[in-house]
UniProtKB/TrEMBL annotation:
PROSITE patterns: PEP_ENZYMES_2 (PS00742), PEP_ENZYMES_PHOS_SITE (PS00370). NCBIfam families: PRK05878.1, pyru_phos_dikin. Residues 435-516 form the PEP-utilising enzyme mobile domain. It catalyses: pyruvate + phosphate + ATP = phosphoenolpyruvate + AMP + diphosphate + H(+). This is Pyruvate, phosphate dikinase. Belongs to the PEP-utilizing enzyme family.
């Protein structure tokens, strides 16, 4: 018989922390905490397998689930001494989602379940607090109606506002027991009016309704979006935990809060968090009341006057600190904890590895290794490579003039400048057009997540350091200022006001998420300095990685940035990118449009000097390191002048007749330039072009050898090769030119000649190429394009449909298609090595900076990856993690 339900509580549990796949993160950790003897309200978890079954069988449950749930519920009743649905002594429960990977706020939760017109009276008698009982009941009706019955919160807000107006009060705490009783009556009427049936009174119906809603929420839009963003497979499903309720809203000795064992923004090794006296969990996250700090130091630092938990409840706080320390050393990582104090008694509701910023992740990992809690290798694996991106971007220049328009909380560090947007859909739309936007909201909710992702930064007028905006922004690496109460948003008018000024949608602001400030206009930024924990972890990573990391760079600025980030050479210098500047492009256009070899040679003579001086500069920046220079690979259409104005300018600068240029431009027009006269086809048709380039590379190398005393090792790379004979021709051209250059100079340098592998034929016939090519560099941008037959330029139009339908799990131009394109890489590596065992293998397509693709390159045994300069540190860390994983697999 399959076990679908796992119980916990009363000092023991059916499951443990290793069972995340089955019980979800929350369920597994609740079980583990119970077994550790920590105070956990008893409950049970319905497994992720039930979710899978539910979707595979037309949204139905396994036949024996109901009986298993009943047995588990009986046990909970026995432990707490209350009965579900009992009029005098009712057990109330919460029903929560919990997937294998945490997806904060993405799925649904129902609290206070089990309340009805009778049990609410029992709760009132038991607690001796009628107001509390009816407040709980109205919260339950709202939540259940929203999550399970699909009604809008607004329907209930309206009713509550009407009551407040009638009573002449403004805050919920001013409502008395009899007021809440009347609110409850009206809420029930809303349900009956909207749905045509009364609010469900049978607690068992309520529970199954909530369980079904949680499973259904696995497929809601925001959960789907979150999964796509974080690569969580749909097949994992969610578990459902049903847990007996404890109440943080039973008076002044009750409270609820969230804590991190270390600071999730900075990593500082000190308890950090917030709590609210006389409140339920949702109040903390919703940001409706401003929470207080947990510790005295925290309160002092934030300049708060309300007492901290340490001061307000010293005894429970002492007990809490003990539990929290126990959890961190047990899980050997920073924990994110939810707790409730019910009438002076501490209850733990959740623990999980805390989400953190890159800065915090680095510090926590390095500190834990230094404390001897984890090894250096574990520390390397603890930091998500792509999260480093947050640290590699500019911060506000401390010297710049700052005009503060509002102050709030430093919810997620980093700086961002962009246009004001008030709506998540609009943020997504504008970002899609390439605009930088800052999303400004009263507060955010899970419905806003796509807009938060699209925005450079987020500002909220309400909410604390653990509000939805703060938590999600930190996880995404977006700068965020929360709780900027000076901002008053008028969405209808499309403006906000702050400090007496009005700002319209579309105006530019800057936010400083590290300070919690919103600033007027664009503010100057400075490049980040990477020191301390970053350098420590990178040094550890460099010790264990096998793959070398190079950069794709052709400008001196990019090359310097790359070297600063630890690049071990250049893996791709796209020579056509060196021609984009105005004077140069004229010479290149003249060359491309020339009628004959003589005309081309005239133009080439103009290009040669700057080609050579550019290479000199690159070689100097990369002294001692390899530099791969890829010969011209222009999709012709990018270089042909299109407008009459451009043609006339070219006629003037080249002295060639404008009509002749026009005619030639027409002749060169291609229907499909991506598959046209590009890559080495240009070198084969017009060898004088590649000869000029080879000469420039080698003359530059000779010059640097002479001036610096250290010869660079240029690697001359031919693009878009498909045939052995093509490669033979190109190798001979290169060597012949080199011989002439060395004879002229009376000196020589070492150099390599190689090819890109960008076409399926090149991969399959790699043995033929290896006869002449000393290295292969996988150009996976083109190789993806040519393997799928999907245009790099046009794929955007239909790819989304494939992603939405799950036919593509991720964009193959971003993440390597390991089975297809990867299969070709494996074939090419094997066949190339069979002919030339020391053939050097690298990758220089965009995938060279993508962590999962790097893991593939490690397994395929490539020698290096090459990526854009800002991704170099990411690639270094990803390469180290990949090497460690390969080691681990070998040990198994
Ligand atoms: C490639 O095709 O992967 C490549 C690196 O070359 P480019 O992007 O310049 O075509
Ligand atoms: Mg290419």
């Amino acid at each position: 018989m399959t076990q679908w339900v796992y119980g916990f509580g009363g000092g023991s549990a059916d499951g443990d922390a290793s069972m995340k796949n089955l019980l979800g993160g929350k369920g597994a950790n609740l079980a583990e905490m119970s077994s550790l003897g920590l105070p956990v309200p008893p409950g049970f978890t319905i497994t992720t397998e039930v979710c899978t079954h539910y979707y595979a069988n037309g949204e139905t449950y396994p036949a024996d689930l109901e009986a298993q749930v009943k047995t588990a519920l009986d046990k909970v009743e026995a432990i707490v001494g209350k009965t579900f649905g009992d009029v005098n002594n009712p057990l109330l429960v919460s029903v929560r989602s919990g997937a294998r990977a945490s997806m904060p706020g993405m799925m649904d939760t129902v609290l206070n379940l089990g309340l009805n017109d009778q049990t609410v009276e029992g709760l009132a008698r038991l607690s001796g607090d009628r107001r509390f009982a009816f407040d709980s009941y109205r919260r339950f009706i709202t939540m259940y109606s929203n999550v399970v019955l699909g009604l809008s919160h607004d329907d209930f807000e309206e009713v509550l506002d009407a009551h407040k107006d009638r009573l002449g009060v403004s805050v919920d705490t001013d409502l008395k027991a009899e007021d809440w009783e009347r609110v409850v009556e009206d809420y029930k009427a809303v349900v009956e009016r909207e749905l045509g049936h009364p609010f469900p009174q049978d607690p068992r119906d309520q529970m199954w309704g909530a369980v079904g809603a949680v499973f259904a929420s696995w497929m809601n839009e925001r959960a789907k979006f979150y999964r796509r963003m974080h690569d969580i497979p749909e097949s994992w499903g969610t578990a459902v935990s049903v847990q007996s309720m404890v109440f943080g809203n039973m008076g002044e000795t009750s409270a609820t809060g969230v804590a991190f064992t270390r600071n999730p923004s900075t990593g500082e090794a000190r308890l950090y968090g917030e709590f609210l006296i006389n409140a339920q969990g949702e109040d903390v996250v919703a940001g409706i009341r401003t929470p207080q700090s947990l510790t005295r130091i925290g309160r002092e630092e934030m300049g708060e006057t309300a007492p901290s938990m340490e001061e307000a409840m010293p005894e429970v706080f002492g007990q809490f600190v003990e539990v929290v320390n126990k959890l961190e050393s047990h899980y050997r990582d920073m924990q994110d904890i939810e707790f409730t104090v019910e009438q002076g008694r501490l209850w733990m509701l959740q623990t999980r590895n805390g989400k953190r910023t890159a800065k915090s992740a680095l510090k926590v990992a390095v500190d834990l290794a230094a404390e001897g809690v984890i090894t250096q290798e574990e520390a390397i694996s603890r930091v998500e490579p792509s999260a480093l991106d947050q640290l590699l971007h500019p911060t506000l220049d401390p010297e710049a003039v700052r005009t503060v328009i509002a102050a709030g909380l430093p919810a997620s560090p980093g700086a961002a400048t962009g246009k004001i947007v008030f709506d998540a859909d609009e943020a997504e739309r504008l970002a899609g057009l390439g605009e930088a936007v800052i999303l400004v909201r009263e507060e955010t909710s899970p419905e806003d997540i796509h807009g938060m992702h699209a925005a450079r930064g987020i500002v909220t007028a309400r909410g604390g350091m653990t509000s939805h905006a703060a938590v999600v922004a930190r996880g995404m690496g977006r700068a965020c200022v929360s709780g900027a109460g000076e901002i008053h948003i008028d969405e209808a008018k499309g403006v906000f006001t702050a400090r007496g000024r009005t700002f319209k949608a579309g105006e530019v602001i800057t936010i400083d998420g590290s300070k919690g400030e919103v600033l007027d206009g664009a503010v100057a930024m400075i490049e980040p300095e990477l020191t301390g924990d970053f350098q420590t972890l990178m040094a550890w990573a460099d010790k264990v990685r096998r793959l070398k990391v190079r950069a794709n760079a052709e400008t001196p600025l990019d090359a310097k940035t790359a070297r600063g980030f630890g690049a071990e050479g250049i893996g791709l210098c796209r020579t056509e990118h060196m021609f984009f500047d105005d004077t140069r492009i004229a010479a290149v256009r003249e060359m491309i449009l020339a009628d004959d070899e003589a005309g081309r040679r005239t133009a080439l003579a103009k290009i040669a000097p700057f080609q050579k001086s550019d290479f000199v500069e690159l070689f100097e920046i990369m002294t001692g390191l390899p530099v791969t220079v890829r010969l011209l690979d222009p999709p012709l259409h990018e270089f042909i002048p299109h407008t009459d104005e451009d043609i006339d300018a070219l006629a003037a600068s080249s002295g060639i007749d404008a009509d002749k240029l026009k005619r030639r431009a027409k002749e060169l027009h291609e229907t499909n330039p991506m598959l046209g006269h590009r890559g080495c086809r240009l070198g084969v048709a017009y060898p004088e072009i590649y000869e000029m380039q080879v000469r420039a590379v080698l003359e530059a190398a000779l010059e640097v050898k002479k001036t610096s005393g250290q010869a660079p090792i240029p690697e001359i790379m031919h693009p878009l090769v498909a045939l052995g004979l093509e490669m033979k021709y190109l190798r001979e051209l290169t060597d012949r030119t080199a011989k002439a250059v060395f004879a002229d100079a009376g000196d020589s340098v070492e150099y390599l000649v190689g090819t890109m592998i960008e076409l399926p034929r090149a991969a399959i016939r790699a043995g033929d190429l290896a006869e002449y090519a000393q290295f292969f560099s996988f150009g996976t941008n083109d190789l993806t394009q040519t393997t799928f037959g999907i245009s790099r330029d046009d794929s955007g139009r239909f790819l989304q449909a494939y992603l939405d339908k799950g036919i593509f799990e991720t964009d193959p131009f971003v993440r390597l298609d390991q089975d297809g394109v990867g299969g070709l890489i494996e074939i090419a590596a094997e066949r190339g090595r069979a002919v030339r065992p020391d053939v050097k293998l690298g990758i220089c397509g965009e995938h060279g900076g993508d962590p999962s693709s790097i893991a593939f390159c490690e397994k395929a045994g490539l020698d290096y990856v090459s990526c854009s300069p800002y991704r170099v540190p990411i690639a270094r860390l990803a390469a180290a993690q990949a090497a460690l994983n390969v080691e681990r697999e070998k040990d198994r």
